[in-house]
Every structure is written in C-alpha cells, then in structure tokens.
Design goal:
alpha/beta, binds ligand EPZ
Length: 417
C-alpha cells in the first residue's frame, strides 16, 4: 500500500518554519539549462519528486547534473536527444517546458502531448500557436508534438488566455530567436519573472516579465550563470492556512510577502490576524475564521493553487462562502473528501457553496492531486480524531517534507510507509 499520512487533529501549530524554493520556478529554470552549453549553478532548489522528474528528463536530453542539498549544478554541453517520452510527460505536465528550449537550441523536439490530469484536460495549444508564429513547423504524430525550426524568428504573440508555462516556454524560445518577440496577455506570476531574471543573467534581453506584456530581443547565444530560486508562495500559503485553521501562532520565513498579497487579503477578510515583515509572515489566529467568498484568477489574483487549501479553512468558518474556480475545469477533487470529514459543501459547475461547520471529524481520505492533498492535510490538522490521507505521493510532488515541517510546529502527524 502506498505511503499515507496519519494526523491526530486539534493541536494549535506554534513556531517558525522556512518556506522552500518554489517548485513552479525551479521547473522552468532547470529546463532553461538546455539553452546554453555552459553550466548553471542553482540554489534553493526544493527536493521534490517533480524536480527529480525534470532532472531525469533533462538527463535523457543530454544534461549532466549534480545535486548537493538544495544546490544543483546542471550543464547541457550537447543535446543528445530531442525526445520527451510519454512515460515522463504523463507523470508531469511541466515536461512540456523543454519544448521551447529544444526548439531554440537544437532546432527540433518530439514531446509527448501531456494527457489530461486530475484537474483537467490542460492542452498546450497556446504554446504551439506561439512557436508556429515564430516559424516552427509543428505536427502531431502518434501522440507526440513534433516540432522543427531553423533559427526561430521574433514575432508578436497574443495568447488567447493567460498560460504560465505557455508564457515561460515562449519566452525561452524567443531568447535565442532572430529579432524581437512581444508576448501580449502574458502570465504575470512571480515564477515567470524569476525565469526572466535567470535568462537575463545568462545574457538574454527580456523586459516586462511580471507584467502582461513581455518584450524579448533575441540574442545569438546564452551563457552560464548562478541563480537562487524564489521561495514557494504556495507552500508558504499552505503553512499559513494550517496555522489559521488550528488557531495557532506560526511565522513562515524565507518568503516574499508581495507574492502572497491576494492570499493575505483573503485571510484578512476571514478575520485571521497576521503580521508581515520583509521576508516573513506571522499568523496568530485566536478564534474561528469568518466565511469569505473566493474567486481564483491569474496572478496577482487569488491563486488557483491555493483554492483547495482556503476551502478547507472555509469548511470550518463561521458562515457561508462561495468558491469559484476559473482556471481549471475540474479542480474540486478535494470536495468529496472534505465532505467525508463532515464538511457541508455543494458544487455547481465551477462554484462550490461552503457552509461552515463547527469541526471536521477525522476520517480516512484519499489524495487526488497535489493541492487537494494539501487541503486534506490542513483539514486533518484541525479535525477531531485521526485522519489518514492515502496516496501522499501526490503531496510529495510539490511539498518538501511537509509532515516534518508541520511536526516541528507541534502537529501530531506521521508518515506510514
Ligand atoms: C501552471 O500550470 C502551474 N504549474 C500550475 O501549478 C498552476 O495551477 C497553473 O500554472 C495556473 O496558475 C507550473 O508552473 C509547473 P496554465 P500550467 O497553462 O502552466 C488552459 C501546481 O499545483 N490552457 O497557466 O500548466 C489550461 O488548460 C500546478 O503546482 C490552454 O487551454 O497552467 C488551464 O485551464 C498545478 N491552452 C488554464 O489555461 C494552453 O496552451 C491555465 O493553464 C495552456 C493552458
């Protein structure tokens, strides 16, 4: 039986905990190693299964990487393969991030189309349309995207919707294109800006990352550099919600508060008191939270990656809340499990109506996707009795030793292999 977490709820969390490096910054930054034959020295790389999957994929493409704690040295002196096979891409959709760099560096790529995943179909049509506008020949063959290009040409690209990895893929391809590329309707996530910082340190000429309009002036080659991955705002947000739901007193350090404004504003609306420092956030929750409505939207709006976790808090808040998920078509997998724990939640399409109950009852529950798992852990921390969260491999994709961090804050939580 796969590993599971056993949580004895009811302990207010207390103490200080550091956020790890951001998964969703580390993945594109690692893929960017394909853009140069020189080494990248990366710091604050989180020890996550998704990072291991990306390193395994890059290894197949010709990368040599060494790892020492949260430091990674990676170099792709020669691209030895341009294929990202289905068995890797199907375990991690972010594998598509090698498409842009392979096209730019190597002129060809064969990347399995990411199948759907628990939270939705998640096509990559915006990525492919952008590459085509830059002169790439794109075809779909036996479930693979087959892409070829001479030197890519700068183009004016306007994506039909905001896509984080789409923006990152196109930005990496444009960095080595001939001429200037403009990406309109770009994703403004901090992880996009972090990737641009890395690329500029490698010699790229990118302006406007972090805004909806990014301008990339192509250069002929990029070099190596050192870079520190930004803190994980979603892990930090998850730890803050864990503090709030257990009515504890927790300080999360090594964070960028600016990356969490929408989450902090929502905690404020729920009546959860907190203080903010230069690189730390402290939640001191003394009473039951109030209900507040939530609508997810691209950064700087309320992040979809925090929707499940905030719903766990709202499930025991005082009042009724409407939670609307606008980014993914099926990101309510946690609802049925929270209901098993006694929550009173009904979903109508992309909206969930949450009627706060006094407390969750500890129950055996099943994780389904990364953030749903986190929501079940958060609910278990506040539940009366014992909660067992099965299939924690979902959690291990995006959280570095979450149970260790929570136990250090006083939670009664343990992993059962
Ligand atoms: C990134 O996924 C994150 N992953 C996700 O985090 C996050 O939930 C998501 O952005 C939204 O913020 C990484 O950064 C590795 P999108 P991504 O392209 O880039 C549709 C987590 O929990 N779309 O912004 O794959 C798509 O189906 C993960 O850490 C198209 O239709 O998401 C989705 O509904 C989960 N066509 C919406 O847009 C496209 O070409 C947003 O997708 C691309 C996307």
């Amino acid at each position: 039986m796969p590993a599971r977490l056993e949580i004895e709820g009811g302990v207010p969390l207390r103490g200080t905990v550091a956020a790890s490096g951001a998964k969703n910054a580390a993945l594109p930054v690692l893929a960017a190693a394909l853009l140069t034959s020189e080494p990248l020295g990366l710091a604050n790389v989180p020890a996550l299964n998704d990072v291991r999957t990306m390193l395994a994929l890059l290894d197949r493409l010709g990368a040599r990487a060494t790892r020492d704690e949260s430091r990674v040295q990676i170099q792709v002196e020669h691209v030895k393969s341009d294929r990202a096979p289905y068995e890797l891409v199907s375990t991690m959709r972010a594998s598509v991030l090698v498409l842009g760099p392979l096209l730019a560096r190597h002129g060809s790529a064969r990347v399995a189309l990411p199948g759907g995943c628990a939270i939705g179909v998640r096509p990559i049509d915006q990525h492919l349309k952008g590459f085509a506008r830059m002169g790439a020949e794109i075809s779909i063959e036996n479930g693979d995207v087959v892409a070829r290009a001479g030197r890519l040409k700068g183009a004016k690209i306007s994506t039909d919707l905001v896509t984080v990895t789409g923006t990152e893929n196109l930005m990496m391809a444009a960095a080595l294109a001939e001429g200037t590329t403009v990406i309109e309707n770009a994703a403004r996530e901090p992880e996009v800006a972090d990737l641009a910082d890395l690329l500029n340190a490698m010699g790229a000429r990118i302006r406007g990352a972090g805004t909806a309009r990014i301008e990339i002036e192509g250069v002929t080659e990029l070099g190596g550099t050192n870079h520190r991955i930004i803190p994980d705002r979603v892990e930090a947000g998850t730890l803050l919600v864990a503090a709030a739901i257990t009515q504890g007193d927790v300080t999360v350090t090594d964070v960028v508060p600016d990356h969490l404004w929408a989450v902090l504003a929502k905690l404020e609306e729920c009546g959860v008191p907190h203080e903010v420092g230069a690189s730390w956030i402290r939640v001191r929750a003394a009473e039951r939270p109030r209900a507040a409505d939530v609508i997810t939207s691209p950064f700087p709006g309320f992040p979809t990656d925090m929707q499940a976790q905030i719903m766990a808090l709202l499930g025991v808040a005082d009042g009724h809340a409407r939670v609307t998920e606008t980014i993914f078509e099926n990101r309510f997998m946690h609802v049925a499990e929270l209901v098993r724990m006694g929550a009173c939640i009904e979903t109508e399409g992309s909206t969930a109506i949450v009627r706060g109950v006094d407390a969750y009852q500890g129950s055996p529950v099943m994780a389904s996707d990364l953030r749903a798992s986190a929501a079940l852990v958060v609910a278990g921390l506040a539940a009366r009795g014992t909660t067992e969260v099965a299939r924690v491999y979902h959690l291990d994709r995006g959280y570095e030793r979450l149970e260790t961090k929570l136990a250090a804050l006083g939670a009664r939580i343990r992993r059962i292999e």
